[in-house]
Amino acid sequence: MARNLDLTALRAFVTVCETQGVTSAAARLNLTQSAVSMQLKRLEESLGLDLLDRSNRAMIPTSVGQQLFSYAQRMLALNDEAWTRLTAQEFEGEITLGVPHDILYPAIPQVLRQFNASFPRVRVKLISSYTRTLKRQFEAGEVDVILTTEDFVGAGGETLVTRPQVWIGAEGGVAWKRRPLPLAFEVECNFRGPAVQALDDHNIPWEIVLESNTTRTVETSVSADLAVHVIVEGTEPPYVEVIDHQCALPDLPAVMINLYQGKQSTGPAQGALVEWIRSVFRGVPAVA
Asked: What is the pTM of this model?
């Protein structure tokens, strides 16, 4: 007797594992939360297994669910590749996408993986830089689509989501307790000005102990507990954590993640890329 796994249910399961929640998965899949939950239930009942640990706020796969996750990723990738090769029109060309360093992860790798599966002959040239640099390149027609982190949205822009900024430090670190507060920032980081202004407003002494042109250098300094830094919530790199400072540090202003796309679209491929970007970023609840 043939026993078949439901690819639709597998896609819902994989997406929940990647986003760690039904709400975010539903947004990415353009489904209702109840539809995603029903697919998960159907999959678990068909296998007679508990695939997700629902005891915590974040939904993560159980040990057997982790095994299925690995298989499901490969099955869906093969399905999507076959579907694209056999049925889709072939689009060719190049799209230049600009993204600030600090919001590359975890969203952009997910978008690029989906895009490559559906448009294997379209190359995405990824540029990572500062918001002000990306906007200059966009205005010069050098970039097709850009994301920015700003406190406003410019002409022709679209705000995808508004998220708070948070203080980050080393895992279990104590740098945030030191005074003056040691800070690490990139030279052109937009978050630097508001952060030091907030510290000044709260009479908290501070000093810049690292100023660098690279994100990796800043992350290394922070993970070594030599300094603290500011990022957009939900984009924490490995080996650091959001500081539970219990009001010892000031709250920071929220930031808009905006999208701008050129008037000269590259067609369906660019449209699909933009839709996936919207879906992934809007899967995270916005700040009121």
From this structure: 0.70
